[in-house]
TrEMBL record:
This protein's UniProt keywords: ATP-binding, Cytoplasm, Ligase, Nucleotide-binding, tRNA processing
Protein name in UniProt: tRNA(Ile)-lysidine synthase
Gene behind this protein: tilS
Sequence positions that bind ATP: S30, G31, G32, L33, D34, S35
Domain notes: The N-terminal region contains the highly conserved SGGXDS motif, predicted to be a P-loop motif involved in ATP binding.
Length: 442
């Protein structure tokens, strides 16, 4: 037996208890059944309960003519309940999946609007959870994907919370009818070319006809899988702690892991640990693309293999794997005269350099390694720069970016490398900050 609609307010408050202390609850109001009921519930509870400040956000995608009337509908609903409404218009980029593009645009807007002491509340319910599980199952998702929608996750500077995941659509409809609520029926929800609509209209009714508790059971399975993913995350943290060893190139600010502790793990644990590490950095590879990790690990000892991923590259060098993205993937401009060495010199796409101490005399310039450079060293004579970099196990990807200080054709210093960064007896060293962030040089 399902719980009756009269239980909804108390269940909602119970689900939102952990977030009663925040400053602001923002309700994502599409104008459909789910978000309309959520808004009404909270506005009504606010009359008798001490709740955070309430407001609503409506995202206008502009994808169909009917949608032009929805902001006014949402405004009328909010006015009747005494809730402030913010309407945000977004541009949906074209692509293979209009559903995904609209979702991405919507959540980008939510992220920009959600502040540090805000909770964004959305109206997804138990039927949506079951539908999400089935949809991802058919796409071959792993444990993380099959965990479906979490009750909470970060968004912007705040938190997104789905407080209705244990409520069925039938219960929401019952509440809406009992309170004579009006809501929008999106015409696109009838279009079966969209996969979720097809599942909702064609597949789910057949499943629930044969197994009436199918949606509740599937939502429960999603909860089990989220718990399993939590255990996998804990295992990944244990494994990554073994590989997150200190190293002398931490000043680069490049995420890296020691390779040997990773390759000592089973293949499955390697993938689990790497997935956990890569998730904040890039869209994760599908199952077939993981062969790139195997290739990277198995490359010869003298090689510097690269695994190309959606948002950057994983490089193997100096016994570690390094995550490179953004400016690290560009090629810096070859060089520049340093007219005022008493001030920091900005390097296009390569941060900045500065001299600590009394600058050496003569016309100075910054350049990058081209090959064949030689450096004169006290007590060692002239040495090939390539050999000096090899001796210090400098990662391959950074060798062409290390700022070199020249006076005429004489190589005076290699930034940041102990013993090569300057003339200590003359009291100066060359320091490089690889990014343009305003932070001190180490």
């Amino acid at each position: 037996m399902g719980q009756s609609p009269i239980d909804l307010p108390s269940r909602l408050l119970l689900n939102l208890e952990p977030w009663r202390h925040v400053a602001h609850w923002r309700i994502a109001l599409s104008g459909g059944l789910d978000s309309t009921v959520l808004l009404h519930l909270l506005a009504t509870l606010a009359n008798t309960e001490s709740l955070p400040a309430l407001s609503a956000i409506h995202i206008h995608h502009g994808l169909q003519a009917a949608a032009d009337a929805w902001p006014q509908h949402c405004q009328d609903v909010c006015d009747a309940l005494g809730v402030q409404l913010q309407v945000e218009r977004v541009t949906v980029k074209g692509g293979a999946s209009l559903e995904r593009a609209a979702r991405d645009a919507r959540y980008a807007a939510f992220s920009s609007l959600t502040q540090s002491n805000d909770v964004l509340l959305t109206g997804q319910h138990r039927d949506d959870q079951a539908e999400t599980l089935l949809f991802r199952l058919l796409r071959g998702a792993g444990v993380r994907g099959l965990g479906a929608m979490p009750q909470q996750r970060p968004v912007g500077q705040g938190t997104l919370v789905r407080p209705l995941l244990d409520v069925s659509r039938a219960e929401l409809e019952g509440y809406a009818q009992a309170h004579q609520l009006r809501w929008i029926e999106d015409p696109s929800n009838q279009d079966r070319q969209f996969s979720r609509n097809y599942l909702r209209q064609q597949v789910m009714p057949l499943l629930t006809e044969r197994w009436p508790q199918a949606q509740a059971s599937m939502a429960r399975t999603a909860a089990h899988l989220r718990e399993a993913q939590g255990l996998l995350d804990e295992l990944a943290q244990i494994d990554l702690a073994q590989a997150a060893t200190p190293h002398e190139f931490a000043w680069m600010g490049v995420p890296s892991l020691e390779l040997t502790p990773l390759t000592a793990l089973s293949d499955a644990r390697q993938r689990n640990a790497l997935s956990h590490w890569l998730e904040p950095l890039t869209r994760l590879p599908d199952a077939d693309h993981w062969s790139g990790w195997t290739t990277l690990c198995n490359a010869g000892a003298d090689a510097s293999p690269i695994w190309h991923l959606a948002d950057g590259e994983l490089h193997r060098s100096a016994g570690r794997v390094w995550w490179l993205s953004d400016s690290w993937l560009g090629t810096p401009v070859i060089g520049a005269d340093w007219q005022t060495p008493t001030s920091a010199l900005r390097l296009p796409d390569n941060g900045r350099v500065m001299l600590h101490g009394q600058a050496p005399s003569g016309p100075l310039r910054i350049a990058y390694r081209q090959g064949g450079e030689v450096m004169r060293m006290a007590e060692r004579g002239s040495r090939d720069l390539k050999r000096l970099l090899n001796e210090r196990a400098v990662p391959a990807f950074v060798r062409g970016r290390l700022p070199l200080l020249f006076r005429g054709e004489e190589l005076l210093a290699v930034a940041n490398l102990p013993g090569l960064a300057g003339q200590m007896d003359e009291g100066w060293t060359l320091h490089w900050q690889p990014t343009d962030e305003d932070q001190g040089l180490s």
